[in-house]
Design goal:
Blueprint: E1 5-6, E2 13-14, H1 16-25, H2 45-59, E3 63-69, E4 74-79, H3 82-90, E5 94-97, H4 102-115, E6 121-126, E7 131-136, H5 142-155, E8 160-164, H6 236-245, E9 254-257, E10 260-263, E11 266-270, E12 273-278, H7 280-283, E13 288-290, E14 298-306, E15 312-317, E16 327-329, E17 335-337, E18 340-341, E19 349-354, E20 358-372, E21 378-385, E22 397-400, E23 403-411, E24 421-425, H8 426-433, E25 436-437, E26 442-443, H9 467-470, E27 481-482
Parallel strand pairs: 4-5, 7-8, 10-27, 18-23
Antiparallel strand pairs: 1-2, 3-4, 6-7, 6-20, 9-10, 11-12, 11-25, 12-15, 13-14, 14-15, 16-17, 19-20, 19-22, 20-21, 21-24, 22-23, 23-24, 25-26
Helix pairs in contact: 4-5
């Protein structure tokens, strides 16, 4: 692949070799930086993400992605020429001249979509390596692997890295995995295949095992246990049911519809109407949602659902007077207030809450990810992380501090072995449904998402993140499928 490009400022043609030489010589501010090059500034993760979106918009074709260096609290911004490096450095970022532009990286992902559409594969842009990272799960063998290999070899080692994973990509909705359901504190299910029986607590053979039921009345298990036989020592049914009984519906709480269980993502406002976001593959399977499996506690109605291509749904609360809290359930009796939405950045430390596995944490590892779940279910523009998740966690919130970041889509592995997990960027969902999030009314615009079709970390982020510069500162019911 040719990497010849013309610097729009100087008109000078630079090839891949030249760019590589420059990259080796200059990482601003360093040896070749002039004496007046400002020192890198320190940023919070959320502020760095906002500034990254702004710089990507300002620099356009000269921007090549960014990541957050948590060890130094710095924003590392990739560019393709010295002029762009100076501009990024002037904003307080660590500027790094790289070989592959964002346009070239996105072109590579488009090529993979055309030539390597193999179930069980995923790819994302990794700004740390300035490459597209391709993942193949354990089902990718034989002819499928040959197809993938041909496609990636055509792009070259300088553009693509390929890795094989031990898990299998899925939307967390495979009934065969019900026996692996866990409560909010990691307690493993004992009676697989029976589903998650709402109200079933410790010792209830009809449920999912010790303390793994979702009790809509906030009570303990059928035998009065408190889940102390489970690994976590708490009854997830009591946790989720207690919240529902008090009228609080937080991010990460269980929601039921169409015989399935998912997780609520973030509460939102849509032109004055209360609603919440969850996964699109959940929204596709149910119109009516309740906070209990029995269906006694009506919650809301699906207003919009997008899957595949993207993976988000908007559910409007049936009671227009509902005032749901802009909070996420941390599964320890406390909640995290959510006041804003931000773009993800590689290196960002994040947490995820879900009705199966509770609270987990990890790091963003890739952006603009595409995942092929099979059967034609291909989703683009996702955030890739190493945060674990399992069936039933679908739609749950991923967040960083008080900032909403993503909605759980799917992935591989579990919370025992780990794996890769993919999330729908919340900024894209907010923009698409016209919703705002948080007590401060922060919507997609506040998060720097100018283009509803843009994937996480897309350079086309608009200028809404400009403020970063100034502010731098659910007894006996049928089993449910877990989504």
């Amino acid at each position: 692949m040719s990497h010849r490009r013309v610097n729009k400022r100087t008109g000078v043609i630079a090839g891949a070799g030249a760019a590589a030489i420059v990259a080796a010589a200059i990482i601003l501010p360093n040896a070749n930086a002039s004496d007046d090059t400002p020192a890198p500034r320190t940023f919070s993760q959320e502020t760095a993400a906002r500034l990254g979106s702004t710089l990507a918009s300002d620099l356009g074709a000269d921007a090549a992605g960014w990541f957050y260096d948590g060890g130094k609290d710095q924003l590392v911004f990739n560019v393709v020429d010295e002029d762009a490096a100076k501009e990024a450095a002037a904003k307080g970022a660590v500027a790094r001249i790289v070989e592959n532009s964002m346009a070239e990286l996105k072109s590579a992902t488009a090529t993979l979509s055309d030539t390597a559409s193999v179930p069980g594969t995923a790819w994302s842009i990794d700004p740390k390596t300035n490459k597209v990272v391709v993942l193949a799960d354990r089902t990718v063998t034989g002819e499928k692997m040959q197809t993938l290999t041909r496609a990636t070899e055509a792009l070259g080692d300088g553009m693509v890295t390929v890795r094989q994973t031990s898990g299998e990509f899925r939307k967390f909705d495979d009934p065969s995995t019900l026996g692996n359901a866990q409560d909010d504190n990691g307690a493993g299910a004992q009676d697989g295949g029976q589903g998650v029986d709402d109200g079933a607590g410790a010792g209830d053979g009809a449920g999912a095992g010790d303390g793994a039921g979702v009790d809509d009345e906030g009570q303990v298990g059928d035998q009065g246990q408190e889940g102390d036989q489970g690994q976590g020592g708490q009854d997830a049914g009591g946790d989720a049911g207690g919240a529902a009984a008090e009228g609080a519906t937080d991010g990460g709480d269980a929601i039921f519809g169409g015989g399935s269980r998912c997780s609520l993502g973030f509460n939102v406002d849509v032109a004055g109407a209360p609603g919440f976001l969850t996964a699109g593959h959940c929204g596709n399977i149910a119109e009516q949602w309740t906070s209990d499996q029995a269906g006694a506690q009506a919650l809301g109605t699906t207003a919009e659902s997008v899957f595949p291509v993207s993976d988000f749904a908007l559910v409007l609360y049936d009671d227009p007077a509902t005032q749901p809290p802009s909070t996420v359930d941390l599964k320890d009796g406390t909640t995290q207030e959510i006041t804003q939405a931000v773009e993800a950045a590689v290196g960002m430390q994040v947490q995820r809450s879900g009705s199966t596995t509770g609270l987990s944490d990890g790091e963003v590892t890739g952006l603009n990810a595409t995942v092929n779940y099979g059967n034609g279910d291909i989703v683009n523009g996702l955030i890739q992380t190493n945060v674990c998740a399992e069936p039933g966690d679908s739609g749950g919130p991923m967040f960083s501090g008080d900032a909403a970041v993503g909605l759980t889509s799917g992935g591989s592995g579990d919370c025992t072995q780990g794996g890769e997990t993919f999330f729908q960027p919340v900024t894209t969902a907010l923009e698409a449904v016209g919703a705002t999030i948080g007590a401060g009314g922060a919507g997609a615009g506040d998060a720097g998402a100018g283009d509803a079709g843009a994937g996480a970390g897309d350079a086309g982020a608009g200028d809404a993140g400009a403020g970063a510069e100034e502010g731098i500162e659910e007894e006996g019911q049928a089993p449910v499928t877990q989504q």
